[in-house]
Amino acid sequence: DSGVTQTPKHLITATGQRVTLRCSPRSGDLSVYWYQQSLDQGLQFLIQYYNGEERAKGNILERFSAQQFPDLHSELNLSSLELGDSALYFCASSARDFQETQYFGPGTRLLVL
Amino acid sequence: AQSVAQPEDQVNVAEGNPLTVKCTYSVSGNPYLFWYVQYPNRGLQFLLKYITGDNLVKGSYGFEAEFNKSQTSFHLKKPSALVSDSALYFCAVRDINNAGNMLTFGGGTRLMVKP
Predict the structure, then answer these.
(1) Average pLDDT over residues A78-85
(2) Is B101's CB within 8 Å of A55's CB?
């Protein structure tokens, strides 16, 4: 167990809908990362927050947004969902930022029908 | 841009034999390199990392990896494979010239250890 928690574990929804994925980092970790794992795109970095501020952005669609709250938990919001958004979404956390090891949560499996 | 290649989709090895999972990388500056393992229906588990120093890095569960700068490789190795090592293995790189701490992952290599 990495100490990173994600809810929900599974999510089934319809196209056009909006969902929110939640992540609680390991105790004391300031950085939170979101990754998407799909069969065709593999594991892709979406976005990183460090102590509440956006730190780095990857291949995140404009329909997706994230934030990190004062208690350091993070939420990933996915809107106007499409079939292709079906994937496993991972959250990871690290103590700080530079060169730190990232520890991954169990993931949220999203199925868009 | 940074990239990682894992040239083998699957590696098959008999239990007790040594195993190697290959990884090559491309970065503009010095790399930070990582190996993670993913078991079915689980998240990624950290195995080991290379930041600087000794080119041979030892990690969890008896795994080790060798950093080779001239060949831009970071192959994962284990002297004696176990059936329980069967899983999906990912190599990842972080370019120190990039802002933040984003990792770029390879496509993954499925390791099958047969009794």
Answers:
(1) 97
(2) yes
